[in-house]
Specification:
41% helix; Amidoligase enzyme; Amidoligase_2
Length: 452
């Protein structure tokens, strides 16, 4: 039976290249609230100790017990879980561990990345006054912020979706809740832990830069966190050093001048060498002169190293360091980026434990990653051509999203472009995402941007 995880250690060494579709590996982060522990999970902690509903956190002992209990539910399953003998789902059993249990074993999280789901505290998740209170008839204690990290999931492993579904179903047997301070993040890298090559990163950066306005449509425009005020995953086209340099908005306190330096090379005739033009055209031919003149894309392809590209596509301020499409792991700008896996991170999906949205988003992220792999150059050019042709429509979407009430202008029916949900579905078809994977998002976009 194929493994649903990759049983090797993470070695973020130098790129060996070329990157292949079968190299792609994903890691998931779910952030949500646990609305108290079921009374069956409590040992020796009375409800009275946590009866103050205004408390934002419980004691360390209670939190550790909560995370260990959730890990146990994930690993052992719930009593109410229906037997699935003979199905693919029945052949895989998730393994899980809490962050405190990792520390107690004298190990680090990275030792569990190949094999275990890791349960720990979500620092950005808050229990707001409008959220449901813990049900004292069913639970004991207060709401606990949870971050659940998956093991490394091989993109080509047919068992991985069954593993994710099984874990989500077990998590949902607990009293969980998701609000606007919660997110779903997807890390995309190589199964062997080696960093993507610079050529791969340039192709991924090109696609994500061009597609950002339509991909960000998956966010609810009515959410208090629509503009990432609570969880940080801001727009690359507005907050990256590349965007700031293009619009001459660079922060005077930023000591990293990579945006200005790369644009200077782009705009200098001596900076565009013949071999660089040929390298560009190897991937971008057929996109037309307008695409070649696009300074943002030329800047991406002028970067000389993965670190330079990572810095260029990250923000200059702390809250903008990790944008919606996060390349900071390659910039190495802080301790977190230097010690984290060398992945491109998708941070734009709101928190959810809904299986169809999670599975659909995994498919979308995986299909986008495929476009950067060796052997996909023809498809890459096709997608770039399509995205370049849609930039006027996407620019209108971007401007609408920046308005105070983005859904109002889009429902007036005055645009000459197709509606947002139609454009989203069209792009999904172009990158070969299965209809069943993207339809829940198309419906979500249609519903959230409607006049209802």
């Amino acid at each position: 039976m194929p493994s649903a995880v990759v049983d090797d250690t993470c070695d973020a060494g130098r790129p060996t290249g070329p990157d292949l579709v079968e190299d792609i590996c994903l890691g998931l982060e779910f952030k949500f609230l646990l609305l108290g522990l079921p009374r069956s999970e409590i040992s020796g902690i009375s409800h009275e100790r946590f009866s103050d509903a205004t408390q934002s956190v419980g004691s360390d002992a209670y939190q550790k017990q909560a995370y260990s209990s959730l890990a146990r539910v994930i690993e052992q399953g719930a009593i109410s879980e229906k037997p699935t003998t003979g199905t693919a789902s029945s052949q895989i059993q998730p393994r899980a561990v809490s962050r405190s249990d990792v520390a107690n074993a004298g190990l680090r999280e990275m030792h569990y990345w190949p094999s275990h789901w890791i349960v720990k505290k979500a620092n950005s998740v808050e229990h707001t006054k409008d959220d449901p209170r813990p049900d004292i008839q069913r639970t004991n204690g207060i709401a606990i912020p949870v971050e659940l990290n998956s093991p490394k999931l091989a993109w080509r492993d047919l068992y991985a979706p069954f593993l994710v579904s099984k874990v989500l179903s077990r998590v949902r047997t607990m009293p969980t809740y998701v609000n606007y301070t919660c997110d779903v993040h997807v890390h995309v890298g190589r199964c062997d832990g080696v960093a993507f090559t610079l050529a791969t990163l340039k192709k991924l950066a090109t696609i994500l830069w061009l597609a950002e306005p339509i991909l960000r449509s998956v966010r609810n425009p009515r959410s208090p966190n629509f503009n990432n005020d609570y969880t940080w995953g801001f727009d690359q086209r507005r907050y990256s050093r590349l965007a700031l340099a293009l619009e001459k908005r660079s922060s005077p306190t930023d000591n990293v001048l990579v945006g200005e330096e790369v644009l200077m090379r782009v705009r200098s005739s001596s900076g565009v060498h013949r071999e660089e033009c040929e390298d560009w055209h190897k991937y971008m031919s057929g996109t037309g002169s307008a695409a070649f003149r696009n300074e943002a894309l030329r800047a991406i392809w002028q970067t000389a190293s993965s670190q330079e590209l990572g810095l260029l596509l990250s923000g200059s301020q702390r809250e903008h360091r990790r944008l919606g499409f996060n390349f900071s792991a390659f910039g190495g700008e802080d301790e977190r980026s230097r010690t984290n896996p060398r992945t491109v991170e998708f941070r734009i999906l709101e928190g959810t434990l809904q299986d169809d949205l999670v599975q659909g988003w995994i498919q979308i992220c995986g299909k986008l990653a495929e476009l950067g792999m060796k052997g996909r150059q023809t498809k890459f050019r096709e997608v770039v051509q399509y995205l370049v042709s849609k930039q006027p429509a996407y620019e209108e979407l971007r401007k609408n999203a920046e308005s105070s009430h983005p859904w109002v202008s889009e429902r007036q029916g005055r645009s000459k472009w197709p509606t947002r949900d139609v454009l989203f579905a069209e792009f999904m078809e172009i990158i070969e995402v299965n209809t069943t994977a993207y339809e829940p998002f198309q419906e979500k976009i249609r519903r959230e941007y409607s006049s209802a």
